[in-house]
Amino acid sequence: MESFSADWLALREPDDHAARDAALTARVAARLNRLARPARAIDLASGAGSNVRYLLPRLPHVSHWTLVDYDPALLAVARQSLQPMAEAAGVTLDTQVVDLRHIGALPLDGYDLLTTAAFLDLVSTEWIDRWVVCCTRHAVPVLAVLSYDGHLQIEPADPMDEEIRTLVNRHQQTDKGFGPALGPDAAAYAARALQVRPEDFSASDWVLSSASAELQRQLVAGWAGAACEMAPSRHDAISNWNARRRAQADQGVLRVVVGHRDLFAMPGRSLSPTR
Ligand SMILES: C[S@@+](CC[C@H](N)C(=O)[O-])C[C@H]1O[C@@H](n2cnc3c(N)ncnc32)[C@H](O)[C@@H]1O
Fold first, then answer.
1. Which of 9, 159, 173, 42 is nearest to 108 (CA)?
2. Is there an atom of ligand 1 within 6 Å of 151 CB?
């Protein structure tokens, strides 16, 4: 199964937060406000807590957060960093070590929002189908953000970019523990399964300038590694591409766009407007 380092999650957090559709979050906040009582929210695949760090100050009606992940070390990082923020806001939180492959066993009673970030691209169609059944049964609104959508654009252009993108997207669809991963197709598949309205399905692309040079370097190296796994015979050409891109990141001349999608849905409820 996939494991993610706290350092990698911390490195991407500022660009994750900048990329998110703030208007979609504001509509979710307005919806929770209309409950006219304190709300409870659950974050799936929380990692080191980036999604809750973003949402906690923006969803002031959430009085309790549950963070769920199968990695106890990441959840410990999340707890340590979020606790002071939560206490200052009068919010409580708990963390639960759960293997989300068994999504049907997750207790969702009493939650007013289920959210997840940078996770849906790891799962399979079969998992999304089971997840949608759970969310519908509990009629819990869903905010799923930062799902990779397959779009990569690097400037200045390089003749090998399209080959790398194709190999990376194939690698994205290998099994990450949930069966063959949806990868770039995850957000669109989830949006259909959850009957998301077009206005609640929006772009949240990373646009990485030289200010994010270390993230650029690590992304490019990660893509080169994934591409080599899919096409070992192309190892030398891919390594040369990686070296060219790394040198450009070092020189501060690289611009990288990575496509992502945010969505909001209200499964099990009539499609009343979110605004
Ligand atoms: C790309 S990270 C995103 C973390 C966090 N949501 C964020 O935005 O920084 C994916 C997360 O999924 C978690 N994960 C992967 N497979 C899992 C599983 N089977 N059960 C629970 N969590 C899982 C990983 O531990 C990791 O924290």
1. 42
2. no
CA dihedral 124, 125, 127, 129 (to 10 degrees): 170
| CATH dotted code for 6-265 | 3.40.50.150
Q: Which of 43, 81, 95, 122 to mutate to test the pocket of ligand 1 (most atoms within 8 A of CB)?
A: 122
The secondary element (H helix, E strand) that includes residue 24 is helix 22-33
How many whole angstroms separate alpha carbon 6 and alpha carbon 239? 26
pLDDT tens track of the chain, all 275 residues?
678 999 999 999 999 999 999 999 999 999 999 999 999 999 999 999 999 999 999 999 999 999 999 999 999 999 999 999 999 999 999 999 999 999 999 999 999 999 999 999 999 999 999 999 999 999 999 999 999 999 999 999 999 999 999 999 999 999 999 999 999 999 999 999 999 999 999 999 999 999 999 999 999 999 999 999 999 999 999 999 999 999 999 999 999 999 999 999 999 875 554 44
pTM surpassing 0.85? yes
Locate the domains of the chain by residue range: 6-265
Which residue of 70, 178, 182, 262 sits with most ligand 1 atoms within 8 Å of its CB, as the best mutation to test the pocket?
A: 70
Residue 222, exposed/middle/buried by CB under 10 A (0-12, 13-18, 19+)?
Answer: middle
Mutate to test the pocket of ligand 1, among 8, 16, 66, 69 (most ligand atoms within 8 A of CB): 69
Evaluate: CB of 101 within 6 angstroms of ligand 1: yes
- Ligand 1 centroid–CA 119 distance in Å is 6
